[in-house]
Amino acid sequence: MTASAPPRTYRIHPAWWVAGVTFLALVGAAAFRAVPGVLIDPLREEFGWSVTTISAAVAVNMALYGLTAPFAAALMERFGIRRVVIGALLLTAAGSGLTVFMTASWQLVLLWGVVVGLGTGSMALALVATVTGRWFVARRGLVSGVLTAGGATGQLVFLPLVAWADQTWGWRSASLGTTVAALAVVPLVAWLLRDRPRDLGVTPYGGTPADDVDPVRTGAARTALRGLAQGARRRPFWLLAGGFFICGMSTNGLVQPHFIPAAHDHGMPVTTAAGLLAVVGIFDIAGTVLSGWLTDRVDPRVLLLAYYGLRGFSLFLLPPLFGPELHVSMVAFIVFYGLDWVATVPPTLALCREHFGVRAPVVFGWVFAAHQLGSAVAAFGGGVIRDVTGSYDLAWFLAGGLCLGAAAMSVAIRRNLPPAAGEALPTDRQAAAAAQAHG
């Protein structure tokens, strides 16, 4: 799109179609991530593997899921969003489908850990940051909340279906089902997902042609590493990354894979526990969308203080709630945890944009990498605690205490609303691209 060409008009701005298909892609990729928590017990029974062994595969998955994100953001600059997302969905489908042939624990680590970790990590929240950064100027907080909910909710709402498929036809049918879910999204991505507003002759939603920054076509790895180098020099990066590390520990790392076996330890049926996590996924949509709306209006540090602090207190209350029967107190915990599950993402992303400008998607990729490293630590550590002590109670208490620390780190971040002297963000897309590539 040239400066002289008038923007095309659409009845519905294409940004909303891009956001819609991105939501579906995140849900499709997340379908596989529903599998490990349900299948820990079936794999133990069939292969005799310990919880620690299975948790190690989950930990590798979560670590790669996070570490891939910043490079994926850079690859989206180099090759385009659509190509990267299609490749990621195909890789995820292949890793999920091949698990039906595994016979040894190293194959579990390779397929669940490495292949699916790379595939899902190539989308993850780096995709959210890239799409919202390119296609939206207005409503960024709201859209980031909706898209984040897509990825997180997909991991949870499939749980009852996975549990039912496992009990009806065995765990292999569940793995194949998630393969189909990832593949089903590929045609829609190829049809509707576009890399930039200029590809359709429009400007970003609520923006101007100057907001449609030229892509960086070379040096994807260098761009990712420079994003890390820039972030590492700034105190807000470490506070955001530290808080997100704990966020990952207390959600994806601990609750998602270990809630179902923990509930089963106390006599609760697997299908009931899976249903509870599905409820978390349902309320996660409302909580994350509300958080995105609030992020456009409230100091994001205050939001993070509330989210982490309340999450910590709720984890202290969780162990006595487990039992063979489902009580109102457990339902209340599930509803709250759903509302809080990834509500931290919109304010964290907003603070990244505030401090790092046009480089925010890549920098946020590294912040998200910290989230997934925290997930990996908790996924593995939770399994070790269960094998050593015979209970998950210590894991819940440790996670609760760390969440209070994350709340303190969040309010320690200084605001940076006006650009610092000499660091004003570029106003034309050529200058912005040069800053992103070489700054």
Give structural notes.
The protein is mainly alpha-helical and 439 residues long. It has 19 helices and no strands. Helix 10 (220-232) crosses helix 17 (360-389) and helix 14 runs antiparallel to helix 18 (393-411).
Question: How would you sum up this structure in a few lines?
Answer:
With 439 residues, the chain is mainly alpha-helical.
Helix content: over 70%
The structural class is mainly alpha
Shape annotation: globular
The stretches of 5 or more residues where confidence is low (pLDDT under 50) are: 419-439
Strand content: under 5%
Rounded mean pLDDT score: 82
Main sheet: strands, sense, barrel: none
N/C terminus separation? 25 Å
- Please write the string of helix (H) and strand (E) elements: HHHHHHHHHHHHHHHHHHH
The tally of beta strands, per DSSP, is 0
Output the number of helix runs: 19
Radius of gyration: 21 Å
Please give a handful of descriptors for the protein shown.
single chain; 439 residues; mainly alpha; 0% strand; globular
Secondary structure blueprint with pairings:
Layout: H1 14-30, H2 35-47, H3 51-79, H4 81-98, H5 105-121, H6 124-135, H7 140-157, H8 159-169, H9 171-192, H10 220-232, H11 235-253, H12 255-265, H13 270-295, H14 300-317, H15 328-340, H16 345-356, H17 360-389, H18 393-411, H19 429-438
Helix pairs in contact: 1-6, 1-7, 1-9, 2-3, 2-8, 2-9, 2-12, 3-4, 3-5, 3-6, 3-10, 3-17, 4-5, 4-9, 6-7, 6-17, 7-13, 7-16, 8-9, 8-13, 10-17, 11-12, 11-16, 11-17, 11-18, 12-13, 13-15, 13-16, 14-15, 14-16, 14-18, 16-17
